[in-house]
Amino acid sequence: MSQVDLFRVLAALALLLTAAHLVGRLFARYRQPPVIGEILGGLLLGPTVLGRLLPDVQGWLFPDDGPAASALALVHLLGMLLLMFVAGMEMRTVFSREDGRPVLVIALAGMVVPFALGLLAVRLVDTDRVIGPAGDVTALTLVVACAIAVTSIPVISRIMLDLGIIRTRFARMVLSVAVLEDIVLNVILSVALGMVAGSHPGAFGLSQSLGVTSANGSALYHSVASVAFFALAVLAAVALRRLRGAASPGGAARTPGTVAVRMAVILAVAASCVFLGVAPMFGAFVVGLLSGAAAGARRAGPGEPLAHLRAFASGFFIPVYFAVVGLKLDLFRSFDLWLTAGFVLVACLAKATSVYAGARLARQPKAESLDLAVALNARGGPGIVLATVSFDAGIVNAPMFTTLVLTAIVTSQIAGWWLERAVSRGAFPPDGPGDGPARESPQAPRPEGHLTNSA
After folding, report:
1. Contact by Cβ (8 Å): 281, 80
2. pLDDT for 184-239, tens place per residue?
3. Is 0.90 topped by the overall pTM?
4. Neighbours of 56 (CB within 10 A)
5. DSSP character at residue 330
6. Coil, strand or helix: which one is 202?
């Protein structure tokens, strides 16, 4: 890397980080999802704004290829891995036995029905308008179906926290349903990404060694690999916990290298996923999920290793990740108004209607069922991650990438607006002290305080 390339990388990162934090803080001040501000910060530096005003400067600072572009792409990848790790880590124990039946019914209805409608929708439209250079219609179908069915845990939990309803039964049900949905949909997305990765000319990994080349064989292999990876990771975590418990009955001591060890585990698992044909983002998500489960319902305090890692990720890598998402958006060349409007309408109707029907089937009141339908319609960070990884993999083209990102933004804004008005009419009475998903004291850190500065 030359001195010029080094300067461009450092200057680009400084500009992206500054823009993301400034606009993100502005949005947070007005009780809007900070992730949207971070994306807009990157948008200002991309072809939509800076590229229109000073195209030569924008092209020089943010080149499409070369060493500087590769370095920025690496930081972007690390940001995605840490985002998925923190998102998984935040999925602490939120389930309540008394809510088991309604949560399961709402999760099934809110996931299966939108996903099925997404599968059907791809068959009814001209895929040439949205398919990416990979040309894989099956992967495209899975991505679109996931985009319609996905729910954002970070954004909706931050909204509920800011509105003071994080301790309510409503919040517990929303987060419980979202956890179940996101685990399943991450497995499906991993399958779609694995199918495309295995078809590239420079493909690498176990599927190539086994000679898996056919479309059906690839779909079967990556489905089995994703599920098997998740199952083995859970078994390994359980075995490791038992070994630690046997070795130190009084509790394992914390070591200064815990953060470094966790980072090494994230990178090693992500590398293993690449070899297995599983999406590396899913590996980071599983590591975070198991780390959060090991920590239990107790919130990590400021001195905890997990808190250090969360702060490390949310202070630099995650904001840069979302800023790069905005940097990739070109609203002049890649914005299809009718595609975006149609997709937002279909996605909102499919998700909200199915969740409402599931809630009513679970015998929830009409008003609460409607609130659940709007809250679980927010796609936020997971919807944006889905858009970026599918675009980078060549599954979707630029207009569809823009549509998926804008869908995540619009649905998050709608959820915040709706719940704010629901609170004003006294819709969510608290369960009482100690209840709620975070199980924290009023002085405890916000459950999504670090993550949702970015997600």
Report:
1. yes
2. 887 888 888 877 875 565 566 777 777 776 666 777 787 788 888 888 887 887 77
3. no
4. 8
5. -
6. coil
